[in-house]
Each structure stands twice: as C-alpha cells, then as structure tokens.
Design a protein that fits this description.
mainly beta; about 10% helix
C-alpha cells in the first residue's frame, strides 16, 4: 500500500511538471505592452454591424524576432499582423492616432522596436495543446525557436467610435 501512494505521488508530480512546461510565464517576457485599446468602426450602411478592432502597442525586448503572435481574447484564437509603430508626438495635423504604422517583416524587428499588433479575424488556426484553455485576454508568441510565451493584457481602453461615411 505504501508503494501505491508513492507511485501516485510520483505520477502527480510528473504530470504537474509536464503541464507547466507548455507555456513560459510572463517573468522572462520579451514583449512589453505599452497600450492596449479597442475601437469600434461604425459602417455608413444602414443595418450593417459595427466592427470592433483591438490594437496592442508593444515594445519588443527579445534578441530574436517574433516568429508568430496570437491574441486569445473573449472571441477565440486570432493571429496578429505586425506593424512598426512610430510615435507622432508633436504632430501638426489633426489625426486621431498617436502613432504612424508601417508594415514590417518579422526579420526586420529588432530589440527595442515599438510594434503594433492587430488581431485578424477569419483565420483557421487551431489552438495548440500547450495553451491553457482558461487563458483569456493574453498575447501568445514564439521567438527564435522558443516554446510559447505569454503576456497577459490587464487593461484594454475603449477609444471613441469611428463613423464611416
């Protein structure tokens, strides 16, 4: 009987250890979230549904560029497009954004770059088994052959709606 309990304890310890290796926690994160916001776009066509977009302004702090980035929000598992973000602090024109965005390829991203991550709907990407099922409002990413890393997003600001003509 004593051996049975030792065996059960050993199996529990092994199981917990294997489950904890799937996703690296935020402690060694290579992604620092500066700003997270949502913004609705109101279509100019009567009866059309408004669309809510999420935007994440982040600082990339990794030595290697991000291979893939996903957003796990309330609506599921979405891949993210990456843009290089440039601060427009002393702007002379009246634009509704604080940043200017340029498309960027993954290998052009370096440590210290400011990026915008935009989740894109419509993809058919399965959720990897390493991702916790209860993880919501979290950015998941891989970098330089690493396993999945995560960065939880605590506060998402809602910006004013954008009406289209």
């Amino acid at each position: 009987m004593k051996h049975f309990f030792v065996f059960l304890f050993f199996m529990l310890a092994v199981t917990l250890n294997v489950e904890s290796k799937g996703v690296k926690k935020k402690g060694n994160s290579t992604l620092r979230v500066l700003e997270a916001y949502s913004q609705r776009i109101l279509p100019g066509i009567p009866g059309a549904q408004p669309k809510t977009d999420f935007h994440f302004i982040v600082i990339w702090e990794g030595k290697k560029y991000p291979e893939t980035v996903f957003w796990r929000g309330e609506n599921g598992w979405l891949t993210c497009n990456l843009y290089k973000a440039h601060w427009m602090g002393n702007r002379t024109i009246n634009v509704p954004r604080d940043y200017r965005f340029d498309p960027v390829t993954n290998d052009a991203i370096h440590k210290g770059d400011t990026l915008e991550l935009r989740p894109v709907t419509g993809g058919k990407f399965p959720v990897p088994p390493e991702i916790p099922k209860d993880a919501k409002n979290t950015l998941f990413y891989k970098s330089g052959g690493s396993g999945w890393m995560l960065s939880p997003v605590k506060n998402i600001t809602r910006k004013p709606d954008i009406p289209l003509p």
